[in-house]
């Protein structure tokens, strides 16, 4: 056994090590792209199916093995459809050359002003129990959703955001999409989550917030019209009952360069419990 291992190691050259490292890095990035999304549960199911396939062949269960083989053929055809949101997100990032990059950050003063403006607006809306849905674009482009609303392209301010969501105004119904420090559009339509395990008390706004974060890497702020509760959705998860300080802590890594990828990773892990 040791001789065989030594023989294998002796055949590995520098290019092989580079090849292995690149493949490992790509798999690592892909893993964190689908982690905490619906695709992760589907991937686990696929792994179970593969293990059952190998086990049935090893145990000589010919009928079960034949059925699993046919099932695997159907699954391979269905995979592009099932993983459509994740595949689309990956291709978009490849097209922009940002698969391994981070979105552009604001300088410290601009980031502080933006975070303060968003949190002030959200607090004002919550205190007056005015429903709101604010989508913050990250690496995945949201142009498809921006086109469903009214394009604005205006500078973010607390007064501007509050005014948009005032009841019975033309733009109050739907979501606002922010790109950096600009309001790109209002009255946008978002996909609703299909997760049936959610609390029945959650309304359309919360389901839309979770739905868009299942398909993109956006962060969404939700203000409940019934209770005034502030919630944040990301990676298909919803954190509720946030105060101003907690909201700002979630916003800060999105816009300030000093919060690196590792810090954002730990924040994500903490928000997922």
TrEMBL record:
<keyword id="KW-1133">Transmembrane helix</keyword>
<dbReference type="InterPro" id="IPR036888">
    <property type="entry name" value="DNA_integrity_DisA_N_sf"/>
</dbReference>
<protein>
    <submittedName>
        <fullName>Cyclic di-AMP synthase CdaA</fullName>
        <ecNumber>2.7.7.85</ecNumber>
    </submittedName>
</protein>
<keyword id="KW-0472">Membrane</keyword>
<dbReference type="InterPro" id="IPR045585">
    <property type="entry name" value="CdaA_N"/>
</dbReference>
<dbReference type="InterPro" id="IPR003390">
    <property type="entry name" value="DNA_integrity_scan_DisA_N"/>
</dbReference>
<dbReference type="GO" id="GO:0004016">
    <property type="term" value="F:adenylate cyclase activity"/>
</dbReference>
<dbReference type="GO" id="GO:0106408">
    <property type="term" value="F:diadenylate cyclase activity"/>
</dbReference>
<dbReference type="InterPro" id="IPR014046">
    <property type="entry name" value="C-di-AMP_synthase"/>
</dbReference>
<keyword id="KW-0548">Nucleotidyltransferase</keyword>
<dbReference type="GO" id="GO:0006171">
    <property type="term" value="P:cAMP biosynthetic process"/>
</dbReference>
<dbReference type="Pfam" id="PF02457">
    <property type="entry name" value="DAC"/>
</dbReference>
<keyword id="KW-0547">Nucleotide-binding</keyword>
<keyword id="KW-1003">Cell membrane</keyword>
<keyword id="KW-0808">Transferase</keyword>
<feature type="transmembrane region" description="Helical">
    <location>
        <begin position="41"/>
        <end position="58"/>
    </location>
</feature>
<feature type="transmembrane region" description="Helical">
    <location>
        <begin position="12"/>
        <end position="34"/>
    </location>
</feature>
<keyword id="KW-0812">Transmembrane</keyword>
<dbReference type="GO" id="GO:0005524">
    <property type="term" value="F:ATP binding"/>
</dbReference>
<dbReference type="InterPro" id="IPR050338">
    <property type="entry name" value="DisA"/>
</dbReference>
<feature type="domain" description="DAC">
    <location>
        <begin position="84"/>
        <end position="244"/>
    </location>
</feature>
<keyword id="KW-0067">ATP-binding</keyword>
<dbReference type="InterPro" id="IPR034701">
    <property type="entry name" value="CdaA"/>
</dbReference>
<dbReference type="Pfam" id="PF19293">
    <property type="entry name" value="CdaA_N"/>
</dbReference>
